[in-house]
């Protein structure tokens, strides 16, 4: 339940991006040969590996840096990363799971009212920007939380931030601003 | 005194520094013998510290592309017939943006696009209505590229221009349509002033019913001009004209979303047309065009009536005392309707709404799956909401669970599989090279 309304707003996390390091050099050819569910991209210098459970795609570089995308929660991202590290261990590399960090969280949320974007942009200039010819949503960047919110006229929000807490805080922050711009203002 | 010691000719140690013509010299004070002398020219080895071009240049000249860009900015302003201050502002922006590292080493096309974007920005700052579409047409560039350059430029210059107001652009857009009596036969011709006036009213109505927010301006303008043209003289001939034919007639390029906007606008007009007391037949999108004139003339009254009817229907459906949260639209409308004769009825309506609000304070509204269906006017995507995919049940994870071996093994190929894999790859590569 958030404090700003009678109803609780559902914040649905759609993507969590996390990175970690294996502290050892990885031979991409070996991984491509001996691993199933892998796509080797020699031109870029990485291997894409897809896990089934949790549903995660990992980009593996030979330096030992790995980026995991596709998780739906921070814990899931950690589990997926650990699975991956274990897998690489089994393939014969001296892996040490370290420097795990959630880098980006993408969430969607829906307001139970429509938002008049031009009024919203006028009230919140210069933090909000809106170009109807380029993108149908208004972009609002919250510097303190390092979060970006895209507000659509239907009341849907897309929030990106460094972690789940910031994303929730961003929704709390922006709710009153959106509530003000529910209906078109009179001239 | 010097560090040399003694004079070679007389042996005296009385040696002084004596500068002759700015040349440093060590001279014996007793016999006048020159002990040593410095170099006349004191240039460091390998050339001086200051380069030749810098020593001889008067001021830094802008490079050729910079000058060309400024010329292009001037050209675009002349084509669009903009005021001198817009031209000056655009040139200032260009000078600033061009020297920035994001734009100094890009392709020539991008530099030209930058010139156009500077014009666009200065128009926005000085309230001259112009769309990104117009600029991309002038530059003959992809609108996406123009958009990208424009946003980057805003970031660099740290400027936040005001958002485009669609009614302002409508006038310029209207002029493009060749519908006057000199271009088309008399039955199809329309004076641009009347067309503009009606189109503006339609746009305002569209803005109020959530058709405008979040959408591109050009299709909306096209739809309103089309409906305005049809409704100003709704004879059989005009009503037969489809949007595509109308665009052909007016020599404008049709935009696909304009059809959807026309349909949405007609739906809104129908909702209002139903409330006209002297119309007997049912109002459908087919026959609403004839009523557009009347609808626009009395639109505020019709809006309030439509909302009241909607509220009553909702109340009847729920069959309970407290009504759904009264829409703020009612309160907004009341301020605008002050001048019309129906003011008293609307005020009564508003006071009733406030009483309802107070009665309803304690109740939490029910969470209906689609709040858009409750309201009379809502963004079309909400009214016709797409069905969400059934979400898969979320796994209960903690992140620190045990990982079983068998699970990991499913991701690793056995040695035999590896050999098969290598063999298959070799076969495939040899066959592909063989066919080549």
UniProtKB/TrEMBL annotation, chain A:
Per UniProt, the keywords (alphabetical) are: Cytoplasm, DNA-binding, Nucleus, Transcription, Transcription regulation
Q: Where's it found, cell-wise?
A: Cytoplasm; Nucleus
What cellular-component terms does GO give this entry?
cytoplasm; nucleus
Which parts pass through the membrane? none
Q: What biological-process GO terms show up in the record?
A: DNA-templated transcription initiation
Q: Which InterPro entries match?
A: TBP, TBP-like, TBP_dom_sf
Task: Kindly give the Pfam families that the UniProt entry links to this protein.
Answer: TBP (PF00352)
The answer to whether the entry has keyword Transcription is: yes
One GO MF term on file is: DNA binding
Q: What is its main location?
A: cytoplasm
CDD domains linked to this entry: TLF
> Which protein family is named in the record?
Belongs to the TBP family.
Protein's name according to its UniProt entry:
TATA box-binding protein-like 1
Q: What is the lineage of its organism?
A: Eukaryota, Metazoa, Chordata, Craniata, Vertebrata
- The gene coding this protein: tbpl1
From TrEMBL, chain B:
Q: Name one Pfam family in it.
A: Zn_Ribbon_TF
Name the major location: nucleus
**What are the leading ranks of the lineage?**
Eukaryota, Metazoa, Chordata, Craniata, Vertebrata
Q: Which GO terms describe its biological process?
A: transcription preinitiation complex assembly
Q: Which GO terms describe its cellular component?
A: nucleus; transcription preinitiation complex
Gene for this protein? brf2
> Mind telling me what this protein is named?
Transcription factor IIIB 50 kDa subunit
Q: Which family does it belong to?
A: Belongs to the TFIIB family.
Task: Give the region (Disordered) as residue ranges.
Answer: 351-370
Record key words, sorted: Activator, Metal-binding, Nucleus, Repeat, Transcription, Transcription regulation, Zinc, Zinc-finger
Entry function: General activator of RNA polymerase III transcription. Factor exclusively required for RNA polymerase III transcription of genes with promoter elements upstream of the initiation sites. Contributes to the regulation of gene expression; functions as activator in the absence of oxidative stress. Down-regulates expression of target genes in response to oxidative stress. Overexpression protects cells against apoptosis in response to oxidative stress.
Q: What organism is the protein native to? A: Austrofundulus limnaeus
């Amino acid at each position: 339940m958030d404090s700003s309304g009678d109803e609780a707003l559902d914040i649905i996390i759609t993507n969590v991006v996390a990175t970690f390091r294996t502290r050892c050099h990885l031979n991409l050819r070996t991984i491509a040969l001996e691993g199933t569910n892998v796509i080797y991209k020699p031109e870029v210098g990485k291997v894409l590996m897809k896990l089934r459970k949790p549903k995660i795609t990992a980009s593996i570089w030979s330096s030992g840096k790995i980026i995991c995308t596709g998780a739906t929660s921070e814990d899931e991202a950690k589990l997926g990363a650990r699975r991956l590290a274990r897998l690489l261990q089994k393939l014969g590399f001296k892996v040490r799971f370290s420097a795990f960090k959630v880098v980006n969280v993408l969430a969607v949320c829906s307001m139970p009212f429509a938002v008049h974007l031009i009024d919203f942009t006028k009230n919140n200039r210069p933090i909000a920007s809106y170009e109807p010819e380029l993108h149908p949503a208004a972009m609002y960047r919250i510097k303190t939380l390092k979060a970006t919110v895209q507000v659509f006229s239907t009341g849907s929000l897309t929030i990106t931030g460094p972690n789940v807490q910031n994303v929730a805080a961003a929704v709390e922050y922006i709710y009153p601003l959106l509530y003000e711009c529910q209906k078109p203002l009179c001239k | 005194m010097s560090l040399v010691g003694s004079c070679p000719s007389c042996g005296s140690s009385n040696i002084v520094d004596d500068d002759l013509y700015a040349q440093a010299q060590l001279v014996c004070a007793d016999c006048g013998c020159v002990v040593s002398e410095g170099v006349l020219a004191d240039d460091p080895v390998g050339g001086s510290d200051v380069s030749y071009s810098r020593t001889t240049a008067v001021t830094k000249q802008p490079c050729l592309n910079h000058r060309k860009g400024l010329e292009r900015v001037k050209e675009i302003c002349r084509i669009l017939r903009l005021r001198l201050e817009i031209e000056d502002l655009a040139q200032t922006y260009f000078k600033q943006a061009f020297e920035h590292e994001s734009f100094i080493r890009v392709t020539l096309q991008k530099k030209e696009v930058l010139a156009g974007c500077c014009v666009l920005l200065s128009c926005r700052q000085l309230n001259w209505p112009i769309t990104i579409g117009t600029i991309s047409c002038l530059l003959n560039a992809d609108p996406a590229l123009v958009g990208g350059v424009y946003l980057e430029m805003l970031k660099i210059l740290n400027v936040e221009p005001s958002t485009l107001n669609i009614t302002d652009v409508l006038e310029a857009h209207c002029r493009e349509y060749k519908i006057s009596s000199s271009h088309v036969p008399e039955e199809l011709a329309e004076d641009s002033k009347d067309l503009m006036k009606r189109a503006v009213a339609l746009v305002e109505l569209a803005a109020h019913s959530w058709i405008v927010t979040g959408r591109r301006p050009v299709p909306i303008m096209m739809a309103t001009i089309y409906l305005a043209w049809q409704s100003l003289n709704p004879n059989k001939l005009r009503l037969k004209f489809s949007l595509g034919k109308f665009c052909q007639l007016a020599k404008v390029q049709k935009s696909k979303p304009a059809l959807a906007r026309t349909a949405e606008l007609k739906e809104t007009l129908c909702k209002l047309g139903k409330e006209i007391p002297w119309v007997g037949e049912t109002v459908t999108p087919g026959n609403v065009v004839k009523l557009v004139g009347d609808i626009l003339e009395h639109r505020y009254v019709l809006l309030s009536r439509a909302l009241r009817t909607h509220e009553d229907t909702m109340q009847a459906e729920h069959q309970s005392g407290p009504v759904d949260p009264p829409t703020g639209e009612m309160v907004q409308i009341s301020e605008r309707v002050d001048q019309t004769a129906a003011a008293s009825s609307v005020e009564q309506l508003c006071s009733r709404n406030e009483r309802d609000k107070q009665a309803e304070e304690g109740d939490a509204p029910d969470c209906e799956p689609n709040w858009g269906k409750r309201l009379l006017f809502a963004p079309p995507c909400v009214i016709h909401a797409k069905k969400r995919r059934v979400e898969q049940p979320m796994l209960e994870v903690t992140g620190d669970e045990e990982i079983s071996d068998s699970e990991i093994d499913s991701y690793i190929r056995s040695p035999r599989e590896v050999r098969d894999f290598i063999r298959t790859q070799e076969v495939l590569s040899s066959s592909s090279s063989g066919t080549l």
